[in-house]
Amino acid sequence: MVWVRSEHAGALAVVSTWLCVLLPWNVTYTPNISGISLLFVRFPFVEIQYAWGLSQRVAVRDPFSALALQSGQGVVIAYQTWVLGAVVMALAVLFSLAYYLREERIEAGPVDPVRLLGGLLGVIGISLAVSTYLLATRGIPGIPLPIGVVISLVFAGILLTVERS
After folding, report:
1. Could you tell me the CATH number of the domain that includes residue 106?
2. What is this structure's pTM?
3. Which of 38, 50, 57, 149 gets the highest tally of CB atoms within 10 A of its CB?
């Protein structure tokens, strides 16, 4: 079965990378702990925390700030894994921009850019899946929805298995 035609694989690789950077990789809702409810929406490069029951209702952090905030806590490894995923995502986005702007030059290179982006999305998906698991088991209890994790892994699978001519 063919998921994508070879001539469209490059465009799919670029668009799927951009889509993965725009989607939240994790949305976690924590209902009423000591009168406080929390909603975390985590994108590859930013975490937005909504809190009900506190005077400060919204906090926005990048992965490095969130990691610094968790320093010394049992959940720090989840944030370190998120930072790894964010760094790989930054590399994937930069490569996808180069591929978009210089398609012929990148296609002529020694590495298949579609498979490279598929591999990067796979690493991102695995890294953020591990981070989601660690947040769910070591962090604040809640209901995690790994939206972007699933999508990045699906795109990785499609890009890694596309038949290139």
Report:
1. 1.20.140
2. 0.90
3. 149
